[in-house]
Every structure is written in C-alpha cells, then in structure tokens.
C-alpha cells in the first residue's frame, strides 16, 4: 500500500471487503439496536445473562475502530479504544480478545502481547485491561472510547472517565446487575448533563433474557441453574437492579419500619450509640426504648466533627433528658500513642459518659442477627427525619469476592465496610437487647469519673 513504511506489519495484505463477512452479517436484536442508537456519551446495557450485551459492545467498538459505525458519530480513525473486563484471563484468553479476533479477518490486525493491544490496519488501537490491575495502570492515556464489561470498581471507572475528557470520547458499560443498589445504580439513574451538549450524560437500556430472540429454552434453564437465590435469578433474568439483591437487612421495608416523627414521651428510655471516626463522619443514633422494649430511632448525627461538637449535638438532640445507655465502638477506648487520651476520655470530659460496645469474634454477625430479629418482629422503627439511617438500611450489602473468585467460593459472611457507620452504631445498641427502665431508675453520672491516665489515676 502506497505511503506505508517498510516495517509496516500489514504491507499490502489487508483483507478485502468480502472477508469482513462476520462483521457485516451481524443483525442486532431490538434491544441491542436501541443500545447502539443511544445518543448519550455514556451508554449502559444492563442485561440479563445471555441477553447479547458482550456481543453488542464488541461490534460497537469494531465499527468505531474501522470508521463505519452505522448509528454513532465517532471521530474518524485512527481511534484509541480500551476494553476493561473482570480479570486478565477472561479478557485475554477466554472472552474479549478471542471475540475480536474471531470477527476481524486475518491480516487486518496485529496483536502486541507486551502492550495488550490490538492494532488495526488503519492505525486504530484497542487496548485490553482488567479490574484486578491497580488503578494507576489506567492513568496517563488519552482515549476516544472505553468499554467496561461487567460492573467496574468505582475508582477504575473514574480514572478511565478522565481518559476520554479531552477527546469528547464515549463510554460503554455492559453488565448484569448482581451487586444490587450501588454506585452504578446512581450512575444509571443520574440526571447529570453532558457539559458539551447540555443533554443527558447517561443513557441506559434494560434487557431481559427473553429479549434475545436467538436464545434457546435450554439456555434459559442453564441460567436458572447458575442462580443461588430469587434475587440473583431476578437480576440474571431481567437485567434490572433489585433493591433487595445482596442486602444485609432484607427485612427492612419503609412501609413497615419508617414512621412520621412524633414527640418522644417523657417516660421513654433515651439511649445513644456512637461509631467514632477520625477521617469518616461521626455517626450517632438516638434511640428511644418504649415500655414494651420497642426501639425507635428518632434522630441521627452524621457529620465530620470534633468530639466537643458531637457532644454538643448529643445534648441538644437528647433534649436535656437523662441518657440511660450510651455506647461507643471499642476502638474509641484505645489511648492515643502521643497524648495518652482516648476518644472515650474526650467524651467523658465533655459530659457524655459512653461505655464500650460489646466486642467479640462473632459480634458483628451476632449483632446483625439481632437487628434482623427486631426488623422481622416489627420492634424497630425509624423516624422519616433520619434520611441517612434509612439510606444506609437500603444499601447495606454483603461483601463479594472478586470476579475471579466469586464462582469458586461460598458467599462472604461479612458485610461491606462502606457507608454503614450509622448502622454500626445502631447494631452496637440493639445487640445488647436494651430493656426498658423508667428514667427515674437511672443515674446520669457514673459513680466516679474515669481517669485520664490509668497509671497516675488523674
């Protein structure tokens, strides 16, 4: 070919038009076509298993790389594209790279193994990465398009988003929503505007297994066999987010457990529980125990604040009444290596006499079990004026293994430690199953103040 360098690996052997038959024989089904035609810069295909999401995205990128996309206005080649998938073996050996090489005819590309990059004859490149790489591996490049296959970690998503800003590039995300309500849910239903056009930034299609006309009944039965519970089956079959999928507190129902605020009766027992932090928000729940031992979360504090500020808020929200139980996480009782004072000491110095919550090898799971009992029995109520508690109840999920290990191991038995601080504080209190005592039976101040330094006793 005229003008090509001598070391050009393609030479004059680029396949003719007729050798691209696999590419031009692709006939998208209705939902795939809807995805191809979405006008937004970030296009999302939330699909059931075997709904055609991976095939759809592969053809979308190949069309773009060749400069022949029928439905999208990509820049002319050469383009710099990236594919990111669950792990290296899936991306390079099992699914993604083999599917690209299956569609593109021999001689139309060169595979650079050391760079994990497919170079097409027209100069377009498709780089392959995986979620098990460090986020720093995604930095630096300027790209025209990125495709995530399955739910990406949020940090990797943000880093790749930075790669397409200077080119006005596009992003594709195809996945089966097995993670329940998470950050990706917020993205799908985002109302953000594209800064270049003023139009919505994100567009999404939801595709069930039945939307794929090429699927066989035997394949549907195979998908059913993969499912561990009804929530997973719903996600795998419908391709939609299900709020109860993977949730720790599936018993929580706003219709049952969320109530309109009312004045707390004078004879109810007032309790507080604190999840103390240095970098994360301070989390305090305010709970009233009625004479029938029901727990009513009537207020919350969830802000970055110093201990004196937290104590002032506690005094205001307890309305000058006796605090009959005051708990704090065990770590708050550990003295600081420099000052010798603990967070617990600081609370005492400010008039809030907290005691360490129950701690043990299985205390987290035991506490979760007790909270679920309260929910199942209808003995836990939350005032609607506690939006952060309600939000965390609806998004608190079990931790998952990485994509590489998810199908090889039993589900994890620990919750995800993120955005759960108010629920941790709630768990500390309910784990002790507080019993109602009239305020008159409880002393506000302990018999003697705790010493600041245990050795000197003062």
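Q: What amino acid sequence fits the structure above?
A:
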């Amino acid at each position: 070919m005229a003008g090509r360098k001598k070391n050009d690996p393609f030479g004059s052997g680029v396949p003719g038009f007729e050798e691209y038959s696999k590419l031009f024989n692709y006939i998208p089904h209705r939902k795939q076509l809807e995805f191809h035609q979405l006008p937004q810069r970030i296009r999302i295909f939330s699909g059931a298993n075997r709904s055609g999401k991976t095939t759809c995205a592969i053809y979308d990128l190949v069309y773009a790389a060749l400069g022949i996309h029928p439905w999208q206005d990509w820049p002319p080649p050469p383009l710099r594209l990236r594919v990111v998938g669950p792990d290296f073996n899936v991306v390079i050996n099992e699914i993604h790279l083999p599917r690209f090489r299956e569609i593109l005819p021999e001689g139309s590309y060169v595979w650079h193994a050391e760079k994990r990059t497919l170079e097409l004859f027209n100069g377009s490149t498709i780089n392959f990465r995986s979620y098990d790489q460090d986020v720093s591996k995604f930095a630096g490049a300027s790209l025209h398009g990125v495709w995530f296959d399955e739910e990406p970690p949020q940090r990797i998503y943000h880093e790749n988003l930075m790669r397409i800003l200077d080119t006005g590039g596009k992003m594709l995300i195809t996945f089966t929503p097995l993670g329940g309500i998470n950050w990706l849910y917020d993205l799908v239903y985002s109302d953000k505007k594209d800064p270049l056009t003023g139009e919505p930034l994100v567009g999404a299609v939801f595709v069930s297994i039945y939307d794929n006309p090429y699927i066989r009944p035997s394949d549907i039965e195979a998908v059913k066999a993969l499912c561990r519970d009804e929530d997973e089956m719903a996600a795998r079959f419908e391709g939609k987010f299900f709020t109860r999928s993977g949730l720790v507190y599936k018993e929580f129902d706003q219709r049952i457990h969320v109530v309109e605020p009312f004045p707390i009766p004078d004879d109810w027992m007032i309790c507080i529980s604190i999840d103390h932090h240095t970098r994360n928000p301070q989390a305090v729940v305010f709970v009233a125990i009625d004479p029938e031992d029901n727990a009513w979360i009537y207020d919350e504090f969830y802000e970055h604040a110093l201990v004196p500020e937290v104590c002032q808020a506690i005094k205001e929200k307890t309305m000058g009444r006796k605090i009959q139980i005051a708990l704090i996480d065990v770590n708050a009782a550990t003295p600081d290596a420099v000052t010798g004072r603990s967070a617990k000491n600081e609370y005492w110095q400010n008039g809030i006499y907290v005691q360490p919550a129950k701690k043990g090898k299985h205390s987290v799971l035991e506490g979760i079990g007790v909270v679920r009992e309260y929910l199942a029995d209808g003995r836990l109520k939350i005032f609607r004026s506690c939006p952060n508690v309600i939000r965390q109840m609806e998004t608190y999920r079990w931790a998952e293994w990485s994509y590489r290990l998810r199908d090889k191991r039993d589900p994890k038995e620990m919750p995800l430690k993120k955005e759960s601080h108010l629920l941790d504080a709630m768990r500390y209190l309910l784990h002790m199953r507080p019993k109602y005592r009239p305020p008159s039976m409880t002393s506000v101040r302990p018999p003697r103040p705790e010493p600041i330094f245990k050795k000197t006793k003062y």
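Q: And what stands out in the fold?
A: Residues 363-377 form the longest helix (15 residues).
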